[in-house]
Each structure stands twice: as structure tokens, then as C-alpha cells.
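Quick sanity check, Ni,Fe-hydrogenase III small subunit:
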Amino acid sequence: MLRILNKIRQTGIVTESFSTIVSDHEIEIVGQQVQAEIARLFAGSLAIRQVDAGSCNACELEIHALNNPYYAIERFGVHFVASPRHADALLVTGVVSRHMQTALLRTYTATPAPKFVIAAGDCAVCGGEFGVSYASCGAVNQVIPVDVTISGCPPTPHALLAGILQAIQKKTLK
């Protein structure tokens, strides 16, 4: 125990500096744009079903941050639902592992049309570190159609909010 504590003392604090600080004003602007589009298209509420297709959970932590008091995404009319049958959109994270492929397809099928799919994080966008292997199908678009991708490992809550806005705007153009 003393050896571990001594090593911690010698190493010190090892963290990355937080260089990209997004202001409250920027979050409010994107949030109000999301709210306006949701009010116009979804009668004031957008329901999202989040699906972890095999991620390391870093993206999920950032998605959970959207619900904390700082970002408070529900004030903009976005909420997460437990059933794909109640969802307007799917937010998929992680490289699609082989054992989650069927579950993701069933979730996509159970989501009522019109629906849109957002792939969040580098693993969901391009396969990330894992790519295609015996245990992985690769990116989400290898299994279901994807409307919008949000890059980042993991993407920030602000990037997620901007990606949701992009998905809504893209859906209105179709």
C-alpha cells in the first residue's frame, strides 16, 4: 500500500489541460436553435433512444453530461427514452460488436418512422481503434443507415448538442 501511495506522490497529478472551453452563451445559442427546430417539427419534444453498441462508455459519460444541470438538455425539448417505440431518433455509440448487431437492427426496426440515426464518437463513425474484426462489425453505417455523424473520442456535450441540431436540420431537408 505504501509503495502505491509513494508512486502516486512521485508521479503527481497527470491530467490534460482543458483548452476548448465552450461558453454558456454558445451552448444557449445552439440549444435555442434545437428548441426552435423541435417546436416546429416535433410539437415541442424530441425523444432519443441511446444505444450502446459496444463502446468503452466514454461517449455515454458525455451523453449523460447533457442531462446534468450545466447543459440541461431537457430545457430545449430533448429527452431520452427507454423504449425505441417511443423514440424519434437513435443515438448510437461504439463500434458495433457482433453480439450487438442483432439488437441494434431490432432497435432500428422498432423505432417508428420517420426516424433518424446519429452515430456519436469515432468508434461509431469509422470503427475507431477496432475497425472490422471477428468480434466487430465496424462503424454503425455497416449495420444500419446513419443520417449524421459526430466525431470525437469522446465528443463533447456541446458537439453532441450541435450534432442533434444538424440531424434535425438534415431531416427537414429530406
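Posting the structure with no commentary besides this: The chain has a mean pLDDT of 88.
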